Amino acid sequence: MFKFFKNIGPGTLVAAAFIGPGTVTLCTIAGVNFGFALLWAMVLSIIATIVLQEMAARLGIISQKGLSEVIRGEIPQPIVRKLVVGLILLAIVIGNAAYEAGNISGGVLGLETVFSNFKLNFGDSTVSLLPLLIGVIAFVLLFIGNYKFLERALVTLVLLMSISFMVTAILTKPDLLAIFKGAFIPKFPEDSLLTIIGLIGTTVVPYNLFLHASLVKEKWKNSDDLTKARKDTVVSIVLGGIVSMAIIISASAMQSSEINNAADLAKSLAPLFGNFSTYFIAVGLFAAGITSAITAPLAAAYVAKGCLGWKGGLKSSKFRGVWISILFLGVLFSSLGISPIEIIKFAQVANGMLLPIIAGFLLWIMNKQSLLGKFKNTARQNVVGYVILAITIFLGLKSIFKVFNLI
Q1: CA gap 206, 283 in Å, rounded
Q2: In terms of C-beta density within 10 A (0-12 exposed, 13-18 middle, 19 or more buried), how is residue 32 classed?
Q3: How distant, in Å, are the alpha carbons of 58, 185, 271, 373 from that of 36?
Q4: Residue 126: beta bridge partners?
Q5: 368: Cβ–Cβ under 8 A, 6 or more apart, which residues?
Q6: How far is CA 274 from the centre of its chain?
Q7: What angle do CA 225, 231, 232 make, to 5 degrees?
Q8: What are the strands, taking DSSP E only, across 263-348?
Q9: SS3 190
Q10: Would you list the DSSP string of 309-373?
Q11: Which of 81, 82, 365, 390 is deepest in the core (most CB within 10 A)?
Q12: Cα→Cα distances 141→50, 164, 333, 390, Å
C-alpha cells in the first residue's frame, strides 16, 4: 500500500485540474435536472480522459519533453510552427487566466457556506477578502517550487475533496440499481444535449494534456516507469470521475428546480440532511477551488515554457512570472466581483477550437517512430484515439455554436 501511494502523483494533479468549481456546478445542474440519467456521460468522459492522458504521460516519459516542446520541435515549417505555437500559447494562457477567477470564486463559495464573507468597503466599492486568502494559499504552494511538496499538497486536497463529495452522496441514500442503469445505459432526456456536451467537455480538458506530459518527467525518467504512470493515470482519473458522479448523485436528491449552482446545493441539502452534509459540501468546494486555482496557473506556465523554449524549472523567474500573472488576475476579478464575460466567451471559443487541434496533434505525435520508437501508438490505441478525436470535433463545434447562440 505504501509503494502504491508513493507512485501516485501527476495523475492526481490532472484529476485536481478537471474537478474545479465549473465541474461541480455543471454536475449539480445535471443531477437536479436529469437525476441519474446522465451518469453515462461521465463514464464516457472518464474513458476518453484516460486514453488521452495516457498518451500524454507516455510522451512525457519517453521523450522527457513537454507536449508544447515536442509540437514546436516536430513542425519543420517556421511559419506553420509560429502559428500553431501562437494559437496554443494564447488559448491556454489567456483561457486559463479567465478560468482562474472562477476557480478562486469556487473556493470562496466553499468558505462562505461556513464563514461569513469578509469584505472591505472603499467608498462605493466592496472588495472581498476571501479570494485573497485563496490566492495566498495558492501562491505559497506554487512559490515553494518543490514538485514533491506540491504533489503531496494536491494529493491531500484531492483526497479531502473526494471524501467530502462521496460522503455527501452516501448521505442521500441513493438507489444503487438506478445508479448502475444511469451509468451504463445511455439516455438523452429532452433538452439534455448541451448538458451532456458540457459534462464531457469539462472532463476532457486540453490544458491537462500539456500539464500531464510536463509533470510526469519530473517524477519518472525512463520507459521502465510507464506501468507506474499508467496505474497513476487510471486510478486518479477514475477517482476524479467518481467524485463528479457523486456530485450528480447528491444533486439528484434535490427536488427543487431552482438550484443553478453548487452554492444552492450546499444550502438546499441542509434542511434535508442536516448541517453535517453542508460542511462536507463546503470542504469539497474549497478543495475543488484551490486545487484548480493551483493547477491552472501551473499548466499555463508549463505551456509558455515549452512554446517559447525557456530553460529552468519551477523556480525560474520567467516560469514564476506566468503563473503569478494568472493567479493575480484570478484574485483581482474574484475580489471585485467582476464577471469577465467577454474573456470567458473567448476562452470558450478557444477551448472549443483547441481541444480537437491538440487531440489531433497528440495522435500525430504518438505515431512518430523517430520520437517514440516501440512506444508509439498501437493500431487499437489509434482507433480509440480517432473516435475520441471525432467526439472532440463535435464538442468543439457545439461549444463555438453555443457561444454565438447558433444552437
Answers
A1: 27
A2: buried
A3: 34, 10, 22, 44
A4: 121
A5: 74, 376
A6: 30
A7: 85
A8: none
A9: coil
A10: T--S-TTSHHHHHHHHHHHHHHHHHHHHT---HHHHHHHHHHHHHHHHHHHHHHHHHTT-HHHHG
A11: 365
A12: 27, 22, 21, 38
* Dist CA 276 CA 270 (whole Å): 8
**What are the grid coordinates assigned to 256, written together?**
427543487
> Residue 297 in contact with residue 323, Cβ under 8 Å?
yes
Helix (H, G, I), strand (E, B) or coil at 255: coil
Share of the chain above pLDDT 90, in %: 17
User: Cell 510507464, residue?
Assistant: 226
Nine-digit cell at 386?
480517432
Q: Which of 237, 92, 101 is nearest to 162 (CA)?
A: 237
Residue 223: partners with Cβ closer than 8 Å, 6 or more residues away: 61, 62, 375
Q: What DSSP state is assigned to residue 116?
A: P
Residue 105: pLDDT band with limits 50, 70, 90 = confident
Pinpoint the alpha helices (H) of 220-261: 226-252
Supply 284's cell numbers.
Answer: 469539497
Residue written as cell 461521465?
A: 42
Q: If you ran DSSP here, which 8-state letter would residue 158 be given?
A: H
Q: Do 102 and 293 contact (CB within 8 A), yes or no?
A: no
pTM of the model: 0.83
Residue 183 has pLDDT above 80, yes or no: yes
Contacts of 321 (CB under 8 A, 6+ apart): none
Q: What is the C-alpha separation between 241 and 234, in angstroms, rounded?
A: 10
CA dihedral over 325, 57, 356, 73, signed as positive or negative:
positive
Looking at this protein, which amino acid is placed at residue 29? I
- Point out which residues pair with 119 in neighbouring strands: 128
Closest of 387, 382, 334 to residue 107, by C-alpha: 334
Q: Angle at CA 169, nearest 5°, toward 161 and 99?
A: 45
Q: For 124-156, what is each residue's pLDDT tens digit?
A: 666 667 888 888 888 988 888 676 777 677 777
Residue with cell 519543420: 76
Residue with cell 447528491: 250
DSSP letters spanning 8-77? --HHHHHHHHHSSHHHHHHHHHHHHHHTTTTHHHHHHHHHHHHHHHHHHHHHHHHH-S-HHHHHHHH---
Grid coordinates representing 76 are 519543420
